[in-house]
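call fold(seq) -> tokens
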Amino acid sequence: MITALILTTALIAAVLASVYFAEIIAHRVGQPYGTLILAIAVTVIEVALIASILLSRSPGSEAVVRDSIFATIMIVCNGIVGVSLLIGAIKHHETIFKSEGSNIALALLITASTLAFVLPTYTTSTPGPNYTLPQLRGAAIACFILYVTYVYAQTIRHKTLFLAPVFDHAVHGSKSHPKPSNQKTIISAFALIMALIAVILLAKQLAPFIEAGVQAVGAPHEVVGILIACLVLLPESFTAIRQAIDNKMQNSFNLAYGSG
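ret:
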């Protein structure tokens, strides 16, 4: 119990640190690159966590990974985006964003989710909702191409669709701060990487305690994957909510959907 409490406290500290450093980097490089950097960094580390769970070969590890990925998508689309909209509306009454950019991100999530979770149900090469190895490779390549296309659209081809609309900061309550120096940005980048790695490692260490707690209360085993997804998404969640509080809803959406 004490170990779990210490790990939880350390996890919260790592999350708050990652949010702080991510905001510095985002402010320095500008949008949409700032949110994209954090989303990619967390995605890479999430993949590392998933790989470590699979390599552990513990009973039910494949199911935990599947449930975690599915829960991540649901938390992003319903949780992070929903809470950001709610908080932004409560504080500012009216928020501004571009639906075109969000539509592109949602199209990516829907297509990738269909390839990963729906299409295997209709394959006949193997019993059950599973891909064969060639099919799995094809689906992985397709998802990778989709993500690269999305990044290209966000940063080059349709960049303006992911930029926050220009408005009067004094009227809409958004704060404007001077950009940090190059030295501070570089230090923040290294610190962000360390903080994100700490979040993932701490989440992995907390996983056995989570599983034991789920079993103790008699909850379904799928809850383990949901709770792990919640832990991994903490940095993006805090950052997205902070952006919504500052009336930067477009940045909040970019970060949330990019993390999905």
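DSSP finds ten helices and no strands in the chain.
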